[in-house]
Amino acid sequence: MDFYNILGVARNASPEEIKKSYKRLSMKHHPDRGGNNDDFIKVQQAYEILSNSDKRNAYDHPQPTGFGPNGFQGTGGFEEAMRQANAQYGNFFGQGFRQPGQTPRNRDITVQADIDLVDVLTGKNVIIQYRLQTGEIETITADIPKGAKHGDTIQYEGLGDKGNPRYPRGNLQVRIKVKKSRAWLREQDNLFTKRVVNIFDLLTGCVIIITTLDKKQLELKIPQGTKPGVKFSIPGYGMPNLQTGNRGALYITVEAEMPKITDISILEKIEKLRNEIQ
Description:
Helix content: 25-40%
Number of domains: 3
CATH architecture of the largest domain: Orthogonal Bundle
Number of helices: 8
Radius of gyration: 32 Å
Number of strands: 13
Structural class: alpha+beta
Strand order of the largest sheet: 8-9-13-12
Oligomer: single chain
CATH superfamily of the largest domain: DnaJ domain
Order of helices and strands: HHHHEEHEHEEEEEEHEEEEH
Shape: elongated
């Protein structure tokens, strides 16, 4: 394979000339622009070799390493460079120059499924539409499991692109995006939230109602003399584990709310009480 011919440059072309030709041909052959996928991969591999001075030198001056049916066979550093280029570009586009044991296929497609944090508790079916290289629109229902995390990917084999009829369809990758919540923070299988409690309730003790992410009402006892910033935990009300289904803990941090007092007589009583406590 003549990489210089693929990029349309002379063998003594400068790095700038190689780069300029690569950009032009990449846009011309890019599959998303209706180009030929095989030609696109060849351009990527040619640039991978010729843009690197060491790999280009190994390509221009192959070193013999042994005997073949017709005498010396040139391998050395260039063969290794080809393996690296193949791994980077052949696998990325799902076809092209195969490694032994690999089956070529059309490219994979990655789409995003947006869910709310509460959907992680119950799981959710998300309807997703995506466009194929052929221009067709396909629709699937992605089953988001309980306990899924932000960034998790679900793979559906054989639902990717099918632009090249010589190869099987690629795969569809559904990447999960869990929307951020103002009231809740998730860490692994645990949930964290905050509740503001009147300073006098912290002094005397009280019971507050916690409305969980899935709208359940829980009573939380605040002991007398609790300091602001103390964290309480309720096991079994966090997020479900993707493998076991067991739920983590719910953590509640108590913050103090200062009452707005403008009545002079009440302020005097508080002052008197403070002196008595001291």
